[in-house]
Specification:
flat; 24% helix; 6-stranded mixed beta sheet; 3 domains; 7 helices; 19 strands; 5-stranded antiparallel beta sheet; single chain; 365 residues; Tick-borne Encephalitis virus Glycoprotein, domain 1; 434 Repressor (Amino-terminal Domain)
Length: 365
């Protein structure tokens, strides 16, 4: 099962211990600004990769989370998201970045932190303006996902209605045919009669941050499908029934349709690309299905992942030796060498001998 991201794990651990950010800062000698940067995954605020890893380790040790696993997850997330060379991301964290809370910071550390704080403060005003997401209240308009929202993962099995609780602080993430979708509440239009309240709800298909907004009232039904221009890449129809709306939250019932309405029938011999991954050890995973990014994160040892694509599938794992693969019923094989980043691409081309048949080809590193 794919795990939460680094920032969410840190924030949840702190909130479970009922600790305020200022209290953590006092105990760890980590600036409030850098604690928030870690929880928001705003790593650009740190002077360099080594500093980000050092603060992350310190914060994780303080919260008593699994530091080794958290650093592994962080490195996996940064493989594609940062400009840092892979060699630096996979290099063991230097023991020199350790802060003894029982001692006063050395003069050198104070200077470094002062410089980092100066950089942070200098960019803070710009980030407040340039990085702030503005979402219109008008249903149907497209804007961006708020950066301060926390999303919890939820499963929606086929032909099963699942209730989502959306609040002003937490949204819900769920998978639709290997597409990771997010749903959250933007605002509530309150009426004199609570039964007439209307929620403005946002729906997003990652990795895009843009969202589709729609209004939903108690008892109302909304259908999201590929006929909506902003959701043209959606592979399955989603039915949403609003069950309750309060001043800051909404309860909706979510159901996935059996299949995409109007989908063309497959030509004879046009079998899908099917890959099953077996994780012998924990490893980072990300994949792209027919051009759309799926979930990414650390997969635990003993878990498996079944993927299916119509035309093209791209897979990347952080440790090739930790993962075994079966592709379209072939013999199970190791995905790559131990400790090595592995990329695999599967794609279909028409057969040279029969135009109704297709051949699955493979590229890999």
């Amino acid at each position: 099962m794919l795990q939460r991201r680094v920032g969410q794990i840190l924030r949840d651990a702190r909130e479970e211990k009922r600790l305020a950010v200022k209290e953590v800062s006092k105990d760890t000698n980590i600036s409030v600004k850098f604690i928030l940067a870690l929880e928001n995954e705003d790593y650009a605020q740190f002077p360099g990769e080594t500093f980000a890893l050092g603060f992350l380790k310190n914060y994780s040790d303080y919260l008593k989370t699994d530091t080794a696993q958290l650093i592994n997850l962080y490195k996996g997330e940064q493989i594609e998201e940062s400009q840092v060379p892979l060699e630096e991301l996979t290099r063991p964290t230097s023991a020199s970045i350790q802060f003894d809370r029982s001692k006063v910071l050395t003069a050198a550390a104070v200077i470094i932190l002062a410089i980092a704080a100066y950089i942070f403060i200098g960019s803070y005003d710009n980030s407040d303006n340039a990085g702030n997401d503005t979402i219109s209240n008008n249903a149907g308009e497209v804007s961006e996902v708020p950066r301060d929202l926390t999303f919890v993962n939820q499963s929606v099995p086929e032909n099963t209605s699942v209730p989502f609780i959306l609040t002003s602080e937490r949204g819900v993430s769920f998978s639709v045919n290997n597409q990771l979708c997010n749903m959250f509440i933007k605002s509530v239009k309150e009426a004199t009669d609570p039964a007439e309240n209307v929620a403005v709800i946002g729906f997003n298909i990652t990795p895009e941050r843009k969202v589709y907004l729609f209004e939903s009232k108690v008892g109302g039904e909304t259908i999201l499908n590929y006929n909506i221009p902003e959701l043209s890449i959606l592979r399955r129809e989603i039915r949403i029934i609003n069950q309750a709306v309060t001043g800051k939250s909404a309860k909706v019932l979510v159901t996935l349709s059996d299949e995409k309405v109007g989908a063309a029938k497959k030509p004879v011999g046009d079998i899908p690309i099917q890959v099953t991954l077996f994780f012998q050890k924990s490893s980072y995973l990300e994949y792209i299905i027919d051009g759309q990014s799926g979930e990414r994160g650390l997969v635990s040892a003993g878990d498996s992942k079944q993927l299916e694509a119509k035309d093209r599938m791209e897979i990347k794992v952080g440790d090739g030796g930790a993962v075994e693969m079966i592709q379209n019923g072939k013999e199970k094989v190791k995905l790559g060498k131990p400790g090595k980043l592995v990329k695999k691409v599967f794609y279909k081309v028409p057969s040279l001998y029969d135009s109704t048949q297709f051949v699955i080809k493979e590229l890999g590193e």
